Amino acid sequence: MAPTIEELYPEYTLTSSIDKLRSEHYAHLDEKNHVYLDYTGSGLASAFQLTHSSVRLSSTLYGNPHSINPSSQASTNAIIATRLKVLQHLNTDAEEYEVIFTANATEAAKLVGESYAFTKETKLVLTTDNHNSINGLREFAGRKGSSTVYIPFSSPDMRINDEDFIKALSAARPGRKATMSTGINWLAKSLLGCQPWRRNTGDAAGREDGMKRCSTSDTNPNQDASCDSPALYKAFLQPSCQSSLVPPQSASTAPARPLEKTTRHGLFAYPAQSNFTGVRHPLAWVTYAQRQGYDVLLDAAAYLPTTRLDMSITKPEFLIISWYKLFGFPTGVGCLVVKKEALSRLVRPWFSGGTIQAVTVGVPWHLKARGAEGFEDGTVNFLGIPEVMFGLEWINAVGMQVIGLRVRCLTGWFLKRLAALRHLDRTPMARIYGPENMDMRGGTVAFNLLDSGGKVVDERLVGQESAAAGISLRTGCFCNPGAGEAAMGLTVASLRRLATATAQMRGMDDFVEVLGLPSAGAIRVSFGIASTSTDVDRFFEFVEKTYRDRVTTSEGLFPRESC
Fold it and tell me: Which residues form the Aminotransferase class V domain (predicted)?
């Protein structure tokens, strides 16, 4: 019998406020008998958020912000307040950063790609582990003569080694040799004293006292001061500069030297957390890359829903966010948080309504709007943007450390149970892609199920049958082809077969056949603000009942349209 979550993670009891939160503000999940396991795909909106939105919109008149009338000013003031709230949440300010509102994280990345000063002398450096919205930057770079360098996976748990990271940045700089030992020493110093998250078993008295204090105050999710304090969590966990619930706090992480324009060698872009495996890549890479002469684009879409990012310490030139990933509502609002100095170096390929102060038709002349407005095409989502401010207030009231701790416990428990799944002949029922422990990882787990013959269960079959059981999870390749290729063991040589077969390929199923893949993707389960241990139990009840000792087939499944 599998151990309970409290047996494996006694600190899980510190997050009991989430159970009350779910029953009051996410009651529709249990009312519909729904198991939601796709928080990396989208956060969930609470009933409280939706009620607040209805009251706000019915009590205040909002209009197009490009005017000075009362309805316009109401929108303008709400947008300004939300920009400041975003900066506050990231622990930075308007002196150093601008907040540009976009439709999503993809549009935020596109703004950087189309406006960045790529040249034949610069490089675009990407991790193999990246969302397609980042992979697509190579198209902008290529059109301006820049080449793209990918940093490969180099470990079985689908991480990227510091050595390969350092080598890629050095190799991408003309006339420079890789300084491996210097780079490794710098990264080691920047992470000095930081260990992956683990239970601190040396302070039992502190843990017991912390549990007592938290249990007396967690009945109200809006008042979690004692539960959300670093002192309490220190009794249970040791922070990591790379994977902790709290971002790296050591001010000694070698602040980046100011970089002159002539020293810039290109753009380095990577995710703080993988949307495929949940791996958390080192935040220390940001400062190191900057010291090597690179601007840094940090994709925080999968990282921020369960973790605070302290941008007084980690200071990328560009940060991209989709807000529905954090709290489900509003959709259609993301942002690019950009250093003012870096913003001044971006050159847009066009202008539109809302992005200019003046324009003439008689002669081809225009004057671009200053700051963020010069990058916000047309009219921004003035009804949706204020909901971001309330969404941030909501998750902070619940407590980011409470959310993060719950997700960590559920993910660790889920991984233990998934790895232990067996058919009656003791053969494994699952193949996990990525880390099987909680060191340097978030709450996303990618895997495939194996039938009783050892064959990968077609992800389409799992998608259909889990949906019929009232379970929302994700199947496919999750818009991360690099991670998918690594998970499926695809090599460059095997991928080259696509070049000769492209003309005959009619769809995704042909792609799978040409490459000889057992499946076109994987299954992804992820946890978030309203997740409970019952969700995990329900998932495993479904898997054991449906796939244990079963031989599966792909016959009769709908064709794959894309990945």
Answer: 35-153, 264-539
* Better-predicted residue by pLDDT, 497 or 405: 405
List CB contacts of 153: < 8 A, sequence separation 6 or more.
128, 129, 159, 160, 482, 483, 486
Of the ranges 81-85, 230-234, 255-259, 432-436, which one carries the lowest mean pLDDT score? 230-234
CA-to-CA distance for 477 and 488, rounded, in angstroms?
A: 10
Closest CA to 102 of 325, 321, 317, 386: 321
H-type helices in 119-222, by residue range? 132-135, 137-143, 162-171, 180-190, 204-215
Q: Which two tokens stand for residue 100?
A: 């540009």
Rounded Cα distance, 19 and 220, in Å: 11
Instruction: Tell which residue, 488, 378, 508, has the closest CA to residue 153.
Output: 488
Burial 178-208 (b: 16+ CB within 10 A, else e): eeeeebeebbeebbeebbbbeebeeeeeebe
Is the distance from CB of 306 to CB of 403 less than 8 angstroms? yes
> Which range, of 89-93, 184-188, 462-466, averages the lowest pLDDT?
184-188
In the numeric block, the tokens 């893949």 are attached to: 517
As a whole number of angstroms, the distance between CA 243 and CA 223 comes to 26
Sign of the dihedral defined by the CA atoms of residues 293, 268, 401, 95, in that order? positive
Given the residues 227, 335, 479, 563, select the one marked as catalytic: 479
- Sort strands 97-102 and 474-476 into parallel, antiparallel or unpaired: unpaired
Task: Check residue 500 and give its pLDDT.
Answer: 72
Q: Is residue 177 within 8 Å of residue 170, measured between CB atoms? A: yes
Distance (Å, whole) CA 149 – CA 126 = 6
Exposed, middle or buried by CB within 10 Å (0-12, 13-18, 19+), for 369? middle
Q: Please state, in angstroms and as integers, the Cα–Cα distance from residue 135 to each residue in 125, 485, 502, following that order.
A: 10, 14, 20
Q: How many Å apart are CA 119 and CA 287, to the nearest integer?
A: 23
Region 481-491 average pLDDT: 85
Which of 393, 443, 416, 447 minimizes the C-alpha distance to 39?
Answer: 443
For 258, which DSSP code?
P
Is 227 assigned a catalytic role? no
DSSP, residue by residue, 136-154? THHHHHHHTT-EEEEEPP-
Helix (H, G, I), strand (E, B) or coil at 329: coil
Q: What are 98-153's pLDDT values in tens digits?
A: 999 999 999 999 999 999 999 999 999 999 999 999 999 999 999 999 999 999 99
Question: How many Å apart are CA 246 and CA 312, to the nearest integer?
Answer: 13
